[in-house]
Amino acid sequence: MAQDGEKEKDGRIEEEKHRDERIEQTGQLTLGENEQKQNIHLLTIIGEIEGHDNLSGSSKTTKYEHILPQLAAIEDSKEIQGLLVLLNTMGGDVEAGLAIAEMIASLSKPSVSLVLGGSHSIGVPIAVSTDYSYIVPTGTMVIHPVRMNGMVIGVPQTFEYFKLIQDRITGFVCDHCKINKSRLEELMLETGVLTKDVGTILVGEEAVKNGIIDEVGGVDKAVRRLHQMIEKRKSVK
Questions:
Q1: 121 is catalytic
Q2: Where in this protein does the record put region Disordered (predicted)?
Q3: 10 Rama sector, left if φ>0, alpha if ψ -120 to 50, beta otherwise
Q4: Which of 21, 57, 74, 218 has its CA 20 to 30 A from that of 66?
């Protein structure tokens, strides 16, 4: 009996160690120690969303090549029943951000997002890609047009390409939340809010009033809503 107790203790220690290492290395975790016995995958989008180019070692980044396979694994898993996405991002690579947003939106399993410090720029499509979205009262969202780094070739085709990317972002956001295109473009092109730039900063309730985020709330509401969505999906099945 003593040996069985020791083995159980060692197993718990090993499990906790693996859990801590997973959080440290990927910022991801499976939440399963709840009354409902539901397995929820926790996905964090933190810092700058990294695309094809590696950012400096001092930058806090989310690598899309890590996120995409994980989302595919969530969809394929028999154990994972829902997805909780925590966002505190300044934005980043447009194509990478849209890829993540499209993957989340295409999941068949219930998903909820929670904007914490902020979800700026290309973080906006990711925030609205889930089935339901929350923002904390002090959370911010920066809405602005697409920006490009590096040399821009001044020919009509370049500007058409910019417009195409912008239309893709605008279309995705409008398809996945309650804001309409004209209001979203108005926020993007606002000149009186951001110094020396165009765009709008929305804080907490403002993001909800503009129809981008569903509700103001914290992790308690987000987790509770996800459990309810999972239960509802079970009952429908």
A1: yes
A2: 1-28
A3: alpha
A4: 218
